[in-house]
Write a structure and sequence with these properties.
The chain is α/β, with parallel strands linked by helices and about 280 residues long. The protein has 10 helices and 6 strands. Strand 5, helix 10 and strand 6 form a beta-alpha-beta unit. The chain is globular. The protein binds zinc ion (2 copies).
């Protein structure tokens, strides 16, 4: 009886017609949600990288095996400044570990760190984030970056989290900034303010898809500026991007932030491109 009465209310047989419409609408969306849930049980999703069936209902559409396959970079084997993995290089006692590039060059940022090497499944995962706007994946990456920050708490300390911005036109075309899909949940995890509008890209990236090393540096030189009126003075900034390729983008952003008075800039990226063959002074 109770059941029948409840369903009567649900269908609002005795309600005025305006309420009736609202209830019908509510029922319709409830049925739609229920059928979505049913679809995911009857037709479970595949891992977006290896196409294996996802056995549990995961928010991140990538299987545990693929997530575990990312080649993590560990703090004990990196260049202390730019975070480049120093494969097999012997650490000289009491001397900072620096890669060949950092021995010859000074970046605009104080240091940079990355979660894993930009290769194999991680390339696919970054593309999913970049072009499919998979927010749970951005959250998963943010968790990994927050672990990185915790592992070098003093060196990576910051007051604000800032995503590397896209040029206004590019962001309008894409509808979102993929770096912010990582930086926003990261700021939340670190209990820091997220300042997505602090920096802006004033010069668009050239249309050419592949840029040489020199072209990369040239294309971002002076391409970023802090937004007029924004408070940057004395701030320690955590600058977030998806991939660090040459360091040119982080460098240009950091220079704009330092010029505006930032106290320090730490670059944090999910992936780090490495050069093959292994780094030598000639390659750099
Ligand atoms: Zn997989
Ligand atoms: Zn370095």
């Amino acid at each position: 009886m109770a059941k029948a009465r409840r369903s009567n209310t649900l269908f609002s047989a005795q309600n005025p017609s305006s309420k009736k419409g609202a209830l019908r609408e509510g029922l319709r969306s409830w049925l739609a949600a229920a059928s979505d849930a049913l679809v995911s049980v009857v037709f479970p999703a595949d891992c977006r990288i290896c196409n294996e069936l996802l056995v549990d209902s995961r928010r991140v559409p990538i299987c545990p095996k693929c997530l575990a396959s990312f080649a993590r970079i560990f703090a004990s084997t990196i260049c202390e400044i730019c975070g480049y993995p120093l494969f097999g290089l012997q650490q000289k006692e009491r001397q900072p570990q620096l890669c060949p590039a950092c021995q010859n060059k000074t970046y605009g940022f104080d240091c940079a760190r990355s979660f894993a090497i930009y290769q194999g499944p991680l390339v696919r995962a970054i593309l999913l984030l970049k072009f499919k706007q998979i927010e749970p994946l951005g959250q998963w990456f943010a968790e990994r970056l927050s672990e990185l920050v915790a592992s070098e708490r003093d060196k990576l300390a910051a007051d604000v989290v800032v995503p590397v911005p896209l040029h206004r036109q590019r962001e309008r075309e894409r509808g979102y900034n993929q770096a912010a899909l990582i930086s926003k949940p990261l700021a939340k995890r670190l209990h820091l303010p997220h300042k997505a509008l602090l920096l802006m890209r004033t010069k668009a990236r050239p249309d050419k898809r592949i840029l040489t090393l020199e072209e990369r540096w040239e294309s971002v030189r002076g391409a970023f500026a802090t937004r007029p009126g924004s408070q940057v003075d004395n701030l320690r900034v955590l600058l977030v991007d998806d991939v660090l390729t040459t360091g040119a983008t982080l460098d240009a952003c950091a220079r704009a932030l330092r010029e505006a008075g930032a106290k320090s800039v730490v670059g944090l990226t999910v992936a780090r491109a490495i050069r093959n063959p292994l780094p030598s002074s000639v390659e750099w």
